[in-house]
Automatic annotation (TrEMBL):
Organism for this UniProt entry: Actinomadura soli
HTH luxR-type domain: residues covered: 156-219
SUPFAM superfamilies registered for this protein in UniProt: C-terminal effector domain of the bipartite response regulators
Key words, A-Z: DNA-binding, Transcription, Transcription regulation
Protein name listed in UniProt: HTH luxR-type domain-containing protein
GO molecular function: DNA binding
InterPro entries, per database record: GAF-like_dom_sf (IPR029016), Sig_transdc_resp-reg_C-effctor (IPR016032), Tscrpt_reg_LuxR_C (IPR000792), WH-like_DNA-bd_sf (IPR036388)
GO terms of biological process kind: regulation of DNA-templated transcription
Length: 219
């Protein structure tokens, strides 16, 4: 006795049953049980195929997100899970306290918020615009688009008048996150000359560190 396995309206296989010599022939009850077993097997195979298809589609979509140049973070509120693609990870991992700031930015669901983050060991600030919205068909899934823009350091006219042209250029490069040797290379001077100018800049502007100088310029 056999029961057909049907998928998509077509017979794709059978389940075969047999009895040994001397055993009773299969009856209607046996055939009903065989049909039920075949249908259960078909349902299990269909479910497995569906899961496989969903996983393949998910992998394809995620692969596309990973290859994208746009920073994207997907937050699943029900599962308490977050997935950030490669550009988003690079952006957020490079800055101190960026992930907690992102949490606060998307907690409200649909919104556009701005974060200011600083790279570890740097005075340079980066503004990140976070635009978040829930998926209409699944509100617990929040998609956030991140756009980053390095903040341009520029001396206010009142501050610029206190400094020489060389000092103003050095101050702006410090606020942009450059170290002494980088500033020296940019302006074609020695690192010691940069240090000398920095002492003068600190004194004239009333600051004590690169961080305070950057904060003054980036207000």
């Amino acid at each position: 006795m056999c029961a057909p396995l049907i998928s998509g309206g077509e017979i794709v296989g059978t389940i075969n049953f047999a009895r040994g010599d001397g055993e009773p022939a299969f009856g209607d009850g046996d055939r009903r049980r065989a049909t039920t077993a075949a249908r259960m097997f078909q349902a299990a195979v269909a479910a497995t195929d569906l899961v496989t298809a969903i996983d393949a589609e998910r992998a394809a979509w995620w692969g596309a997100l990973e290859a994208s140049g746009q920073a994207v973070v997907v937050t699943d509120l029900e599962r308490a899970e977050r997935h950030a693609n490669r550009p988003a990870r690079a952006l957020l991992d490079a800055a101190d306290d960026a992930w907690p700031s992102l949490d606060a930015a998307i907690d409200g669901g649909e919104a556009t918020r701005r974060l200011t983050v600083r790279a570890a060991g740097s005075d340079a600030a980066t503004d990140i615009t976070v635009t978040s919205a829930p998926l209409p068909e699944r509100p617990s899934l929040i998609v956030s688009i991140l756009s980053a823009e390095s903040r341009t350091a520029a001396l206010a006219p009142a501050l610029r008048r206190l400094l020489t042209e060389r000092e103003a250029a050095i101050a702006e490069l410090v606020a942009a996150g450059q170290r002494d040797h980088e500033i020296a290379g940019h302006l074609h001077i020695s690192p010691n000359t940069v240090k000398h100018h920095l002492k003068s800049i600190y004194q004239k502007l009333g600051v004590r560190s690169r961080v305070e100088l950057a904060g003054l310029l980036l207000r």
